[in-house]
Request: fold
Amino acid sequence: METVSYYDYIFIGGGLSTLLTVDEMLKSKRFDQQRILILEAVSKNTNDRTWSFWESGKGKFDKIAAQYWDHAIFAAADFKTTVALHPYKYKTVESAAFYTSLKQKFEKSGIVTYKLERYENHNESANGVVVRTETSVYNCKKLFVSVFHNQETAHQTKYPMLWQHFIGWKIRTKEPLIDPNALTFMDFDLPQDGNTRFMYVLPFSNTKALFEFTYFSPEIVADHVYTDAIKAYLNQRRIFDYEVYETEQGAIPMSSYPFWNKNSKHVAYIGSAGGWTKASTGFTFSSSRKKAKSLVKNLHSSFDLRKLRYFNRFWFYDLLFVDVLYRNNELGSEVFASLFKKLPASLILKFLDEETRFTEELRIFWACPKRPFITALLRRLVGLSPRPL
Reply:
C-alpha cells in the first residue's frame, strides 16, 4: 500500500513564478503554520536565464542585481536614440543568484520543502488534490502548476500565439570595447526578413556584456540563425576577439489566451502556464511579481482558484498588439520606433508596466501606426479570425 504524504500547498516546477509566490506567502506571515512543497524535475542552480525589469527607487532585489542602468539605446533602420529612463532604473538579475537567494530564505523558514521528483499527474476531489510523481504520492489543499504546455493554444484561432524566442551570449573581451553606460533595449537596425527581430544588449562592464538576438514571431528558428546574427552584430561593432563564457536560450509565449480558464477549485496554473507573461513584450519578471502578490493576497484554504482572472484593459491592448504582429510580423520595428520617436521612454515603460492612466494611454495609441491597430480592433469587433493575410 502506497504511503501518502500531506502538504497544504504543492507547487509543480521551481521557476520564477513558484519562487515569487512562495516568497510572498512567507512575507505575508499567514502561512507560518502551513507546509509547502516544491517539486522540481531537475535542480535549478545555474545561470540559465537573465531577468530584467525596471522600477523607480530602491527595490527588493537590489542586493542580487547584476547591474542597473539609467539610460537605454533604441535603434531602427532610420532612427537611433539614447534615452534617459528617469524615474526608472533598468535592472537585471541573473537566475543563479535569484534561485540561491530565495532557496536559502525558504530553507530558513522551516515550512518549505524541496524535492527532486518528476511530476506525473494529479487527481482533484472535493476536498483537495492527490499528486503523483515517479516515486511518491502527495495530498494537498491547493496545487499550483507552472509547467507550460502549448496544446490548448495550438488548436484554436481566437487568440494567436507569438513567441519571444532568443539565444544570448555573455561575452568577455580582452580590450575595453563595450560602453557600460547604457543598455540597448531594442536594436532593429538589422535585416528583418519579414519578421520582428532585434538585438538586446546588457553591458556589465567595458569588457563584459550579454548580446541577445530576439524574435517576436509565430515560428521558432534553428539555433544557427541566432548565433550567426550575434556574430555578425559583433563583427559590425569591430568586436572580434572575445570569449563566450555563458549562453542562454528561451522561448516565451506571447498570447492573450485566457490560460486561467483551465483552473479548477483546488488547482491553478501560474507563470507562463497561467498567463502571467506580458503578452505584448514577453517580459515576465514584473508581471509575475504583481500576479504573485495578487494571488497570495486572496489565497486561503477555502479560496476557489477559478476566481483567478486577469482581464483588464491592458489585456485587451496586448491582444490587439499580438493580433497586429501575427498578421503582419514585420511591423514590430515600425511600432516600437514610432513610440520612441514621439514619446518619453518613461511613459513607454510606465505603459508596459500597466501603470498608466487612460489619458496617458491615449498618447500611446496616437503615437502608434493607426491602420494596423484599427484593422485589428475592427476584426475583433466583428468576430473575424486574426490569421495572417
Remarks:
- The radius of gyration is 22 Å.
- Residues 79 and 337 are 8 Å apart (CA to CA).
- The chain is about 30% helix and 30% strand.
